[in-house]
Amino acid sequence: MSEQFDVVVIGGGPGGYVAAIRAAQLGLKTACVDAFIGKDGKPALGGTCLNIGCIPSKALLDSSRQFHNLTHTFKDHGISADNAKIDVAAMIARKDKIVKQFTGGINVLFKGIKGNAVTPIAGFATLKPGKVISIKGHDGNVAEITAKHVILAAGSAPIELPFAKFDNKLILDNAGALDIGSTPKRLGVIGSGVIGLELGSVWRRLGAEVTILEALPDFLAAADADIAKAAAREFKKQGLDIKLGAKVSKAEIKGQEVHVTYADATGEQTLVVDKLLVSVGRKAATAGLLAEGTGVTLDERGRVVVDEHCATGAEGIWAIGDCVRGPMLAHKASEEGIAVAELIAGLPGHVNLDTVPWVIYTEPEIAWVGKTEKECKDAGIPYKVGTFPFAAVGRAVAMNETAGLVKVIAHAETDRILGLHMCGANVSEMVHEGVVAMEFNGSAEDLARICHAHPTLSEAVHEAALAVDKRAIHKAN
Hints:
Blueprint: E1 3-10, H1 16-25, E2 30-34, H2 47-52, H3 54-73, H4 88-111, E3 119-122, E4 124-128, E5 132-136, E6 142-152, E7 156-158, E8 171-172, H5 174-177, E9 186-190, H6 194-205, E10 209-214, H7 225-238, E11 241-244, E12 247-254, E13 257-264, E14 267-273, E15 275-278, E16 282-284, E17 317-319, H8 330-344, E18 358-360, E19 365-370, H9 373-379, E20 383-389, H10 394-398, E21 405-411, E22 417-424, H11 427-430, H12 432-439, H13 444-449, H14 459-467
Parallel strand pairs: 1-2, 1-6, 2-3, 6-17, 8-15, 9-10, 9-15, 10-11
Antiparallel strand pairs: 4-5, 5-6, 7-16, 12-13, 13-14, 18-19, 19-22, 20-21, 21-22
């Protein structure tokens, strides 16, 4: 007879492992099944985020930023360094060490739950009728377990273009772009989303000529237009060549080069690069996840269909994270995982998708929460806006980080905050002022009345909130 659990989580990414930990904390017998294999050939929890996404990319972003500052901006501080060099192999090794630290740490967390450890199981899981989970191990052996509740947290996978198949030597997905052995002279990127901008920035800072081909006519269409404009201006200064309205139709490997064919407003063009990163989005990794007869349905994009509480409609089966509706963000997945575990335990649980923050870890950083100005216009919502530039913030000037601005959008009648949008240094940390304020139905006046320490970067939020009613102190209104 197969072993039975109260909860089985399929997927060990930031949604799955967090759900498993919370379920175990609540006294539920819990297992977490995950198929990922690390660079050392051993099972590695953490999913895309910890292994080949959020964490390793931030490690490379930080390393490349240190090198760029050493060679470009330290002179402004009176610091000189002649003939500075970057050891790419050492940089990659540091990244791998950080990844191993965090993926190994999940196993420690699984064991450390008082009185009720999570059971990790390595292998590919398929949900069968009756909440039976068939697990094919990496050795080929198949086992089955059963559960009272199943949480599907299968995550996502990069979208592959039919004319640019990944080989992770010359044509790369996000994982391949994290493991380039030396700085390429020419790097092409298809897609100017989060992955394209972040990894393009890494290799540009290290000396690569980076060309980003974006099919859409607008840059960062998901962000507020003022923020996108400010970011694009800084990226251009940094040497990122972003071509908008560039629709790629072909990518041919010729020797050790990739010849990319694309069309823009002037006609057909060719770009020759040494490496090509394809980052045109991600899709739900639900292939092979469900056997016939589970009662779980997929939508036209292969995502598991769920309600506002992440329930699939099949009794005792839930789904969270990248494999369901909503933004494909690690923190959104984690919050859904906690909410579902608490619902299973009979507690209240809910995630407000309207207050999930977005961050792009470029230089300067880009972050936002809530509605953009365009979204307010399209929805017919009366609104008012306040902005403030980092160039007028004392701490930003002292740090030599004057690029960007903060923008507050508030309802014109109620003053309730509808959105907070930022481009600048460390805005990934500052955006949560908006998240907290919006969760408590706060107003621009509330932010404007809160004392902010001086000198700090967060004063830009304070001044932008004041500017909503045209009473900013440190700029003309």
